[in-house]
Amino acid sequence: MRIVFSKLWMVIESLCQYLNIMSDKPTTIKEIAKILKISVSTVSRALNDHSSIGLTTKMRVKKLAAELNYEPNQKAIQFLQGKSHIIGVILPELSESFFSTAISGIEDVAYKRNYTVLLAQSHDDADREKLLVEKMKTQRVDGLLVSVSKTTSTYEHFEVFKKLNIPVVFFDRIPPIKDIHYVASNLENGTYEAVNFLLKKGHRTIGMINGPTTLVASHERKEGYIKAMISNRLKFDPSLIVSCDLSESGTIEVMNTMLNHRRKPTAIVTFNDYVALFAMRHTRSLELEGIDFVSYANLPIINYMDYTPIASVEQFPYKQGKKAADILIDLINRPKNETGTEQAYFNVVVESELIIPNPK
Amino acid sequence: MRIVFSKLWMVIESLCQYLNIMSDKPTTIKEIAKILKISVSTVSRALNDHSSIGLTTKMRVKKLAAELNYEPNQKAIQFLQGKSHIIGVILPELSESFFSTAISGIEDVAYKRNYTVLLAQSHDDADREKLLVEKMKTQRVDGLLVSVSKTTSTYEHFEVFKKLNIPVVFFDRIPPIKDIHYVASNLENGTYEAVNFLLKKGHRTIGMINGPTTLVASHERKEGYIKAMISNRLKFDPSLIVSCDLSESGTIEVMNTMLNHRRKPTAIVTFNDYVALFAMRHTRSLELEGIDFVSYANLPIINYMDYTPIASVEQFPYKQGKKAADILIDLINRPKNETGTEQAYFNVVVESELIIPNPK
DNA sequence: TATTTTCAAACAAACGTTTGCGCACATTTT
DNA sequence: AAAATGTGCGCAAACGTTTGTTTGAAAATA
After folding, report:
1. How, if at all, do strands B143-146 and A241-243 pair?
2. Is B85 within 7 A of strand D by CB distance?
3. In this predicted model, what pLDDT tens digit does every residue of A128-178 receive, in sequence order?
């Protein structure tokens, strides 16, 4: 009697589960096993097309799985395998065109290689960045992509990841420390091309509105400038390169000193497109004409402007993002580093390039 | 003899683990338990400040945990609790200022409420959107925030989430279907203010470059326009509102018809800032002056332009993102919907507002 | 002293999946 | 006929944590 009852109950139970009445919870492999009266492992192997499972069983399992809308519980799998298939990305500002383009590159690589992207903006705030790093750690991302904030001056918060064996790749804004993986652009080359371009156009007095001297990027620009002058056998005049805080007022200030220079430049290379726009607006307000501007970034907004730089140095953010993500995922999937063998660090430089728009 | 050996081995083992020599793997609660010779559950409860654990034990556990750099394995916890504390966000384009601002609002709420953000861009491609939805599903996000792509015309791919009991909240670009949660802006109000503003400035013939008639947003703009005319006891002339595909050439085309209109407008409301810039550039090229432009979006690039609309309708993307994220997380954490009780749908409208910049 | 209450800690199950090992049966080879 | 090989599947452990229940001892009450 008891046996009959329990058997009856089992039938009812499977039936209900089959019709998905009793639970709103997602179907599991267990339920499939129970209904089909086979073991869980068989179901698992059947769904994964394991060679040791008969064709008929596979069919039966797959059919029922489809009917029950079975979806493997990723959380269980992630837990079991110790992988989340999530990469974390921390960057300063998505509203900066460079980063919103870079993230597209990152995303594209991630999806292609079966990863998803956990995103966070530091808004150029070092404290927030630390907090985000913490978040990424507790989420146990499989890897981390970082472009550090302008205000970050210490870098210990990234150390934890080494201990946890979670690879970190920096891109664009990289910290000035050793033993890191990074992808960045080299502006020296682009600057060289830019100055060369201006020289070929006949300019002989070329000014440069550079950024704060603390930035690596400023240094690279300067080097490119010098290199171009030297390779054209021209004398390099250091006073033609001025530093600027990149604000509008700062730009106007240095523009004024530039215009009062004993050798007034006929062309100016500016730190970025925004500085270029400020500077050009200023010269127009002074009703000065004929100064050629070359800039960096090649922002899309340039297409909407009335007055634009005649050329721009492109840093290929999409390419940089793509490269960084590729390296990161390679690092995630590399074989375990044997104890003792020191690992190599990826230091990739994406060359910048001068873009000369078609004259209208 | 055997006993001595096994005991010795255990000591060595704990010692090694204590010094973190043997494994590069993260410390677990188990190891702590073994070293302290207490049970796992005690350790777990001690770390979580459970009331039934003695103060001394708590101290011992916490001290050792700190020394071993213990970090709870989130994957295990997520698996156990069936929650990932991740919300998915699918939106068309981060390079559009609206979305990069909105995501900041989403992020801020998410972090405040202890969630992280899994991001994906559809690039306005319906197929890609479907794929991303699939990704989000397999990642089993706790909730989903979506701004649908321009090319999306079917919406079944979102249905799955209902079955999985994963809440979905749409924002800004919402699908034209019933029974969804959404946050969107109402442009009628902002348009009303915009037209009113122009009327107060003395304009009597106000044109409007509207978007495709299929868009809800176009309809709202039109309604706002009409409402303003009526409330000022002015006749509404439908021929002053023209549809445009929002491209530069399309804009120029409709501008020409507008300028050849028997009642040439003295002010024009344009669908967005880009259309405004195209239109203004065109009028300048025709050396027409004196037409006032009002637009939508209030993009940051406006600050860099020489000629800008005299006012802009702001849609508060940050606020919209924030609101949408808040609703989503509320939905995630709401008590289980009892069977039978139909749940309500959140339909939130963020009012738009006319922003008039300080005249320079 | 006998009973109940309180406190501290242990036990064990559970979450869903994968995977190494082993068993039983069938087929082929010696 | 015995042995080797192959096929199809089940058993059980493992991943790290939380949590309901249980146990044991000490303290408080009767």
Report:
1. unpaired
2. no
3. 999 999 999 888 899 999 999 988 889 999 998 887 889 999 999 999 888
